[in-house]
TrEMBL record:
It comes from Fluctibacter halophilus. Pfam families: DUF6436. Residues 56-172 form the DUF6436 domain. InterPro entries: DUF6436. This is DUF6436 domain-containing protein. The lineage of its organism: Bacteria, Pseudomonadati, Pseudomonadota, Gammaproteobacteria, Alteromonadales.
Amino acid sequence: MWRYVMGFSAWVALFVVGLNVVASDRLRPFDPEEQLSMASITPGFDQHIAQGFSQQFGDVRGTLFHLQTDNCNCNSSNRSHQGSLNALVANKGFRSVAISPEQLPEAAHALTAAPALIVFDQQGELAYLGPYASGLSCGTATSLVDTLVKQIADNQHLGSAVITEAQGCYCALPSTVI
């Protein structure tokens, strides 16, 4: 009996160690160098981002920009979240645009991780910039944006929100973009 207890204890210990290895490999800060955090507190940041996206993509009013990088293992868990956000705002006249890091306007180069969401309200003003969610899966269960995007679509938000302090499944953007 004692051998079974020891064997089970060893199995549990190995499982916990393995889980920690997987978690530490996937759980990263969204803004590790605080570049976005520092940029977002500068005067005119919101307008600078809106202007940069407008120059790059034209009319940004009522637009969700979904930023993803190639070969990022976080994309798969994020796809369903993108779909649910798109469905949430589809009947409100919003559009959805998938972009790559190479398409980011220079104004947004303080953004160093993906997947990320950039939302402009019906007036074309920056309403949200940051991660979709936190946690290992970064899915809808740990969403940071669902309620906020609904408020933006219903024109009930109070200015822009830039979220930088999150831990989750994020990939660094290519250094050629930053």
